[in-house]
Amino acid sequence: MKLISFAAASLFVGVSKSALPPGYEDELWYQPGNCDIYTNPYGIVGARSTFEKCYDPETNVMSEGVWTGSETDVTVPDGWIQPQICTAEQYSQCEVDTQCTLLISPGCSCYVSSSIHPYQACEGKDCNLSGCTGNECGGYVGVCQPGFNGTGNTCMLEETNDIGNTTAPVPTPAPSSAALASVSIMICIISISAAINCIA
Fold first, then answer.
1. DSSP string across the chain
2. Which of 23, 28, 37, 134 could be disulfide-bonded to 71 (CB atoms 3.0-4.6 Å)?
3. Of 15 and 80, more confident
């Protein structure tokens, strides 16, 4: 089984270093009052900005921050600060696995949504799943990944060996040496009988 865990993100940096070279997303800036959360409903690897979001515990609103780096000319808005990571008291997506629900997006991809802080890939008319099979989440389960160092838990996608309702065929056991010997003797007897009948 594979799990992209919150802890493996190494404070959100390790997940994305292979996505963008240094200098593009080195530092993150938020408005005061926000803290930094990690969310990864699709269980993918990508740029840090894909997973790190601003969160305002007072308004329960998630938003995008501003990224700066030595290779960019992005200017930090006046008054914006580098945030602290949200504590478990400020933001946590789940306590148990049952609070992490699997859903299908209009692009026919499986994703996980928290019942505490729901993530919706679409709304209303945009939720057209006519081209999907309905089995896109076969082989996945939603799990509540524990936080670390006081951070909240995160709903994550975990791969399993159970693909939908299909079952792997049961392999036929190889015949034993004794069985093979018995078959060989029977073949010999049949061959001798046939030869005698031909002569007669």
1. --B--TGGGTTTTTTTTTTS-TTSSSEEEB-TT-EEEE--TT-----HHHHEEEEETTTTEEE--EEE-TT----PPTT-BPPPBPPTTT--S-SSGGGEEEEE-TTS-EEEEESSS---S--GGG---TT--S-TTTTEEEEEE--STTPPPEEEEEE-S--TT--PPPPPPPPPHHHHHHHHHHHHHHHHHHHHHHH-
2. 23
3. 80
